[in-house]
Amino acid sequence: MSSPSATPTNPQKARKGLSRVLHAAGYSLQGLAAGWQETAFRQEAMAAIVMIPLAFLIGQDWVEVTLLAGTVLLVLMVELLNTGIESCIDRIGPEWHDLSKRAKDMGSAAVLLSLLLCAGVWTAAVWTLLGN
Length: 132
Fold this sequence. Notes:
This protein is mostly helical.
C-alpha cells in the first residue's frame, strides 16, 4: 500500500486550480485534433459548422435552438467516444476477437442512434417551421 505522500502516477492528478484547468483544456484540444484525423468526425464536424448556425434560424425559441444544436453536438461527442473505443481495441491487437467486435459494433450503434435522434429532432423542427 502506498503512503498518502507518494507521487501520483499521473502528474495531472497533482495539479490544482487554474493549472489543472489549463492542462485539461490542452488535452481536450488534443482530443479534438485527434478526432479530426477520422473521416467520420470530419464529415460530422463540417455538417455541424452549417447546422449549428442554422439552429438559431430554425429554432423558434431557446428550447428548440438548444435541442437542434445539442443533438448536433451529441453526434460529435458520441463519434469521439466511438473513436476512443476503436483506438483502445486496436491498441490491444489486430487479431479478430468476439469481444473486440462487440465493443466496436456497440460504439458504432451509439453513433447511429445519435444520428437518428439528431435527424428526428431536425425533421420535427423543420416540419413545424414549414407547417406554420
